[in-house]
Each structure stands twice: as structure tokens, then as C-alpha cells.
Amino acid sequence: MCRVTRNGGRPSITKQEWIKYAALFVLAVAAFGVAALALMGPRNVSETVPAPVSPLAAAPSATASVSPTPTPTATATPTAPSLKIELPADPVLLILGDSYTAGDGADLPDQGWAYLVAGELGYPTNIDGIGGTGFAWGGGAQDEQGEEYEVRLRNIAANPAFVPNLLVLQGGQNDAEIGNPDEVRAATAQTVETARRLWPGVQVVVFGPSAPQPLAEELRDVNNAVRAGAATANAPYIDALEAGWFTAANSPEFDADGIHPNTAGHAFIAEKFLESWTALTQ
């Protein structure tokens, strides 16, 4: 297309040319704006919009202000207190039992454990020991003698001149002849209760089988039965078997005949009994 000039030779601009120039101007302005935005870079969001806050981060830490819980100190399981006896002002002692109480096996009867204990304690004492008897076993090959401990207690109580306020019931090994632990347990408890009725206020201690080994181990079942009977009657129990008085190592020097202790054995029983007695009366 040719251009037409006017007014001294300057060229004249047609309408189409004006439209073209206007479009070019608009494009130029748009390009400038895009370039300017590019030079400015993306807006920093963190500068204008606060970052969201986590509820956990905003809340104070539980461990920051609370001291750690100390580890509990291990303590021993409390045990039931042992039964005790209260010594009366004027002790009068009765020791009733089997051949051990009679002093069998010692060179002389008064070298038996019961006599040694009585001499050491210094109380007025009656010692009643009959071989082959027990809480439930009355003595004899067929239990025909009728010398059970309860029967003998009644016989002693028939004499009003002697009133004990301390009673030691020793034995149980002959009750193994019964072969019925429940019967032995019941007889033991009944014997203790009978003594309390005969002599109100009497302090009763049950002293179980105290044979050297290996017989001691054979008496474990009857020992358990006598101990259970004492517990039923709420009476203290001196348990020579569980305490391990006689062992495989020391029994040969204390054994007279495989059943009874010798003189040294009786002295040993007396020593251990007195230790237990002291613990019961403190």
C-alpha cells in the first residue's frame, strides 16, 4: 500500500495504520508489565501470611514443667507377726510330751532336753513324758493305751495343787502311726483348747517333731499336720524340722538309735528350744 502525504510533504497516516499502532502499543505495555512482575519475583508468603501454629506446639509441654516420677523403691512384702506369749509374773511350767520329753536316748533321764530347759529357766516345772504317745496316738502297738495328750492333761488338772500358767506340748512323731493328717491336726487343736479350758489364761506353745535325720524328713507330713493344728488354735509353734535343726551333716553326732537323740542331741535340742523360747517371750 502507498502512503499519501499532505501539508508540505509529510506522509498522512491511514485508519488501518492507527489500529495497527494501537495494537502494538497495547502489546508493548503488556510485555512491560510481565517483565516487571518477573523482576520483582514471587511474593514471600511467609512475610505476609502467618504460618499456621500446631496446637501441640502452642501448648506447653507436659514434661517441661513436671518432674519425672521417681522409680518406687522396692519394699519387702510385710509378713504376719509371729505369735508370742506373755510370761506371767510367777511362771509355773508344764512340759508334756513323748519319749523325747521323758529323756529317752540320753545317758540319764535328767539329761533330756526338757529337764535341761527347766533347769535353765528356773520355773517350778512338772515334766510329763510318756514314750510312744502323741496328740492323737494313745500309745501301744494298736493305740490301746489311752495316753493321748488331752487325756493326760485332764488327769493332771484333777490335782488342784498344781496349776500351770505355761504349757509346752511336745511331740507329734508318734502321730505318724495314725496315717491321717486331718485327724492329727484336729487332735492338736483340740488338745490346746482343752488346756485353755482346764487352766484359764494358760499360755500354750506347741513344739513339733525334733528327730535327727533321716527320720526327721520322714516326719514332714505329720509335722505339717501338728503345725496346722497349732495354727487353728492360734498357738505358737516351734518348728524344728523347717528350721533345719538336724541336718545330714550334724545328725550322726546327735543320734542315739535312729529314733531318739543321744545326750549331746538332747543338749542341742534344749539349746535350740531356749533360743525359740526367748524369741517367743520378748
UniProtKB/TrEMBL annotation:
Provide the SGNH hydrolase-type esterase domain boundaries.
Answer: 95-267
Kindly give the InterPro entries that the UniProt entry links to this protein: Ester_Hydrolysis_Enzymes (IPR051532), SGNH_hydro (IPR013830), SGNH_hydro_sf (IPR036514)
State whether keyword Transport applies.
no
Task: Report which superkingdom the organism of origin falls in.
Answer: Bacteria
SUPFAM superfamilies on file: SGNH hydrolase
UniProtKB keywords: Hydrolase, Membrane, Transmembrane, Transmembrane helix
Q: Which residues cross the membrane?
A: 21-40
Q: Return the annotated region ranges for Disordered.
A: 61-82
Q: Which GO terms describe its molecular function?
A: hydrolase activity
* Matches recorded under Pfam families: Lipase_GDSL_2 (PF13472)
Q: What is this protein called?
A: GDSL-like Lipase/Acylhydrolase family protein
